[in-house]
Amino acid sequence: MHAFLAGDADVLVSTTIIESGIDIPQANTLIVERADALGLAQLYQIRGRVGRSDVLAYAYLFYPDASELTPEARARLSTLADHTELGAGFQIAMRDLEIRGAGDLLGPEQSGHVAALGFELYVEMLDEAVAELTGRQRTAARPVRVDARVDAYVPASYIGAEALKIDLHRRIALAEDEDELRELVSATEDRYGPIPEPVGNLFAIQEAKLKLARLGADYLVFRGGRVTVGPLALGSAEVRTLVGTAPTVIYSTSKREVSLRVESLKDALELPDAIVEARAA
User: Fold this and answer.
1) Strands 145-148 and 257-261
2) What is the mean pLDDT of the chain?
3) How far apart are CA 63 and CA 69, in angstroms?
4) How far apart are CA 215 and CA 135, in angstroms?
5) Distance between CA atoms of 165 and 112, rounded to whole angstroms?
6) Pairing relation of β-strands 226-230 and 257-261?
7) Residue 111's pLDDT band (cuts 50, 70, 90)
8) Predicted pLDDT at 245
9) Torsions phi, psi for 217 (to 5 deg)
């Protein structure tokens, strides 16, 4: 390695370890054997090891006959061939996301930091960070949690492209009022067709969050056939009005929680509406 850096050796044979950011400005030719076996991001990093000075560089990616390539491998190599200009990393990253998929980030199961935060809160935090870096004014949303054991995601059968799925998740999570959310529902139906149940649950949960924020509550939990909303300070008149609307509702003054036996998420999400009406009465 030192001999190659010093110019005493003209050829360096190595594994893919060179993708780790080694800077050798005088290297101007790269040959990759079996490029079809490497990932797109990995190939992009390896290709970046040449052309690091003002000397024209060349990268040769070798692979078997095109008929032997898998569709994914063909897509990876085509992407690299199509994006050779300076600053193409973002386009390649988005294409890589489409080829490989976003995993469980937007599926029925999640992992890592996204699972700990929830995708909606993750998006809100990301938007706040972007707003701070760009100097854009953004009103911080009241942190509200909806804990419901239901499927709430965008199925691949409804929207195939991962970038579009991410965009829909982002727009739902950042909707700031119910009118904006209803417009998004209409736009989604117009573009992709009737909304399936998991996507409908996404919209319903975000609508519930907006209502809870308006009530001043911090959470709604739907589990074991019971929905609980809190903390809320309700007066005796408000409780009586609420019981008149939902006779089996229970208000705990010690926990400041409103709970009700329900059969479905749709019924659970009607409780914030009943509380709003009780307060307005």
Assistant:
1) unpaired
2) 81
3) 8
4) 30
5) 19
6) antiparallel
7) very low
8) 86
9) -85, 160
CA 235 – CA 200 distance, rounded (Å): 34
- Residue 238 vs residues 81, 213, 241, 251, 253: alpha-carbon distances, Å: 66, 18, 5, 10, 13
DSSP 158: T
Rounded alpha-carbon distances, angstroms, from residue 118 to 30, 133, 146, 150, 273: 43, 23, 10, 14, 24
Tokens of residue 38, six digits: 């490497």
Q: Per DSSP, which regions of the chain are E strands? A: 29-32, 58-61, 145-148, 219-223, 226-230, 250-252, 257-261
Q: What is the length of the chain?
A: 281
- Torsion, Cα 234 121 202 274, to 10 degrees, reads 10
Q: Residue 277 and residue 201: Cα distance in Å, rounded?
A: 23
Q: What are phi and psi of 118, to 5 degrees?
A: 90, 140
Q: In whole angstroms, what is the distance from residue 203 CA to residue 195 CA?
A: 10
- What is this structure's pTM? 0.53
Phi, psi values for residue 121, rounded to 5°:
-65, -35
- The amino acid occupying position 140 is A
